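Predict structure. Chain length: 351.
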Amino acid sequence: MKGYAMLGIGKTGWIEKEKPECGPLDAILRPIALAPCTSDIHTVWAGALGERTDMILGHEAIGEVVEVGNLVRDFKPGDKVIVPAITPDWNTLEAQNGYAMHSGGMLSGWKFSNFKDGVFAEFFHVNDADGNLAHLPDGMDLRAACMLCDMIPTGLHGVELADVQFGDEVVVVGIGPVGLMSVAGAAIRGASRIYAVGTRPNCVKLAKEFGATDIISYREGAIDEQVLKLTDRRGVDKVIIAGGDNNTFAEAVRMLKPGGKIGNVNYLGEGESVCIPRVEWGVGMGHKSISGGLMPGGRLRMEKLASLITTGRIHPEKMVTHEFHGLEGVEQALSLMKEKPKDLIKPIVLL
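Prediction complete.
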């Protein structure tokens, strides 16, 4: 089969590989919709995961089942399914402890284009099919459905990690597709004021549509100073980090009230450490909590999040700005994610 792969750090290209084999609990799929992710860019061009050779890229796919193992109960060839980016092993101790995304070790639920070939191929493998696949709801727009693989669950996990409650004032740092879903999630959770940090006009427009009450531009000065000024130096209850870099944590701590919480879902692809300002962290005793987490995977979560689309609670299809057709379109779509033209939010490839 053909796949688009990381050949080495800083190098990508098309390769030929054997079609993956199906285990008794697994499934083999062919993609019907794909999307590249900024994580792919970090993996290839920043070498964030270390060297990978001839590893097929991609972890966002809607697929059609072509083969299932003899122990798979709920899926059959021909089924259209949502494939989460994170596919845990559900019989592990980590899963039983509530952290399935780390099944087998830290971040080990993230298998596609990390520990095994990803989805940018004519066929791809999914472990533990009954636990990880979700049936695609009839009539769901493939553009919206593809956002269920990663953008929606990651953005909403930021809201969960920050523990947004009714009436909270919330800052969302970064309003790419993940941050936009964090804005939407904070609004659903009942945030009273949502400060969205970003500058791209199309992202700003969608952030407002999804529930942002204020827009903050990092080009106009330090984010924390702008937020503190807008809140009469009180700060905010919660901060969701969906963009920025290692230094963003310092700004988040400075703009947070005592007892506030930071939820990070930003992939830190470079650097050795993050900086936490000692005094603004209450010299270690300010009850300012920081949680960073890989989004949960699994069938139940996919089904629940899909219902937010079918009931009209969120409209992720509005984030798709570029559309390509055929597997060959993956190369162009990934190049767009690397180049980040001003009109880009999220590209998609339909097969």
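Summary: The longest helix spans residues 177-189.
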